[in-house]
């Protein structure tokens, strides 16, 4: 008679309780016959060990000592933060994507674009439709040297939006060289094809002639009025 039987516990029942305790540990998920830590997805033990050895294991959010296992919601939140927060598309650091923070910067970026097609996206962080369509817009212009995307956030650029009569979000303007403003409309993820059509139509190779009229007259008038102290 072994020690387990002597205490009135059969090996099978003891094993069941041990497994039950293992399953009950916070932050662990039982999947078939393996115990997998939360945050590793469907990674097996062998795969997990290989990732640890290679230094490629997923990083979990760090918590102060004594707070216990990391909640799933905290893990998801941190991953969303690292992925771009608002969902800004394939990259928040695309060379042809610029976040506008002032009227002067907006005018400078328009003038710098030259003959390139300039797509202006008016958006807000609290606008659900904006969050859905913005990644699609950035993906559309990703890697294109002939298109520039200027992102104008409503909350910090209300004067620009008001001057350009932007009354709904998301809203889009299209500008190009001496042709000035080519198009302006509102579009969502469901009507994203309108943006694709506009980029296809206005983004064809061309060299415009004449005076550059890419900066909206309304903004020029606003800047002049401010310079005059009006």
Description:
This protein has two domains: 3-81, no CATH class; 97-227, Glutaredoxin. The chain has nine helices and seven strands. It has helices at 3-6, 11-24, 45-54, 72-83, 103-113, 128-141, 158-163, 193-202, 217-227; strands spanning 28-31, 34-37, 97-100, 117-123, 147-153, 171-176, 180-186. A five-stranded mixed β-sheet has the order 3-5-4-6-7, sandwiched between helices. The radius of gyration is 28 Å and the shape is globular. Mean pLDDT is 76; it is low at 3-8, 22-42, 60-70 and 73-91.
Radius of gyration: 28 Å
Largest sheet: 5 strands, mixed
- Name the CATH superfamily assignment of the largest domain: Glutaredoxin
Output the helix-strand order: HHEEHHEHEHEHEEHH
CATH topology of the largest domain: Glutaredoxin
Tell me the helix content. Answer: 40-55%
Number of domains: 2
Strand elements, count: 7
Shape: globular
Q: Which structural category fits the helices and strands?
A: alpha/beta
Estimate what percentage of residues fall within beta strands: 15-25%
Q: Could you give the order of strands across the largest sheet? A: 3-5-4-6-7
GO biological process, one term: cell redox homeostasis
Protein name: Thioredoxin
Pfam families: Thioredoxin
Family: Belongs to the thioredoxin family.
């Amino acid at each position: 008679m072994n020690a387990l039987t002597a205490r009135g516990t059969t090996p099978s029942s003891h094993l069941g309780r041990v497994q039950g305790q293992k399953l009950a540990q916070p932050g662990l998920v039982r999947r078939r016959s393996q115990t997998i830590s939360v945050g590793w997805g469907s990674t097996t033990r062998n795969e997990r060990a290989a990732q640890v050895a290679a230094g490629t294991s997923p990083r979990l959010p760090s918590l102060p000592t004594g707070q216990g296992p990391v909640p799933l919601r905290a893990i998801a939140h941190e991953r969303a933060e690292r992925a771009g927060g608002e969902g800004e598309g394939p990259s928040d650091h695309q060379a042809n994507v610029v976040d506008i923070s002032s009227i002067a910067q907006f005018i400078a970026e328009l003038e710098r674009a030259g003959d390139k097609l300039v797509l202006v996206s008016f958006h807000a962080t609290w606008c659900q439709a904006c969050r859905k369509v913005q990644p699609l817009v950035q993906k559309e212009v990703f890697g294109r040297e002939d298109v520039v995307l200027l992102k104008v956030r409503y909350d910090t650029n209300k004067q620009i939006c008001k001057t350009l009569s932007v009354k709904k979000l998301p809203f889009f303007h299209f500008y190009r060289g001496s042709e000035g403003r080519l198009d302006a409309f509102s579009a969502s993820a469901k009507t994203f094809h309108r943006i694709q059509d506009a980029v296809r139509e206005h983004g064809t190779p061309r060299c415009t002639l004449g005076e550059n009229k890419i900066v909206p007259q309304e903004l020029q008038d606003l800047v002049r009025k401010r310079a005059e102290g009006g």
